[in-house]
Amino acid sequence: SSNLPAAAIFTRTANALRVPATLLYRTDDEDAADVTVVCSSPPVVVLGPRLCRLGADAVPDEELRFLLGRAAEMVRPDTVIAAGLPFEELQAFMSAIEGAFGSGPEDDEAKQLKTTLPIRTRKPLAELVGRATGADLDPASYVAAVERKADRAGYLVCGDAELSLRLAEARGAREGVRHLVEVALKGELIEARAALGVGVLR
Length: 202
What we know:
The chain is mainly alpha-helical and 202 residues long. The chain contains ten helices and three strands, in the order αβββααααααααα. It starts with a helix and ends in a 6-residue tail after the last helix.
């Protein structure tokens, strides 16, 4: 997919945002989402067929930048689990963490997690989970926070406030829309775009 505009934009965006090395694939499955993030090592981003169109049917660059900026932000170690796992698997994983290192029930998955993690990882994780409240370990809140963070990165890269708000709203992200409005009013955004070398805001 190296000859696709979307591939070039993702590569430049990932470099600008300094995200981990990521594998980029495309799919011709018409039912596929525009962008799918897969939690793996290294992380994977899959481009849907709409983002691979060329010529008159091509997705505008500004929209590509927003969507691929979101994807780049989602492959970070602190976000890829929430972005790249099915929600049920994320729930099970967070429940296992709470069972292994917090006050949750210690089932077989929690015991396995506790024994497979390196010792240097277990202690800080136990301290974090021990201080966490129920809201801190809520998978839905985690996913929502990751979505807001990704929207912010998409807006940062594309610079088009109206488009960013429209795309976030189309996804049903009302919290994301309010969050983007707040971000759009901050002067630091212009400085951040200048530092990234991605142009001016519209």
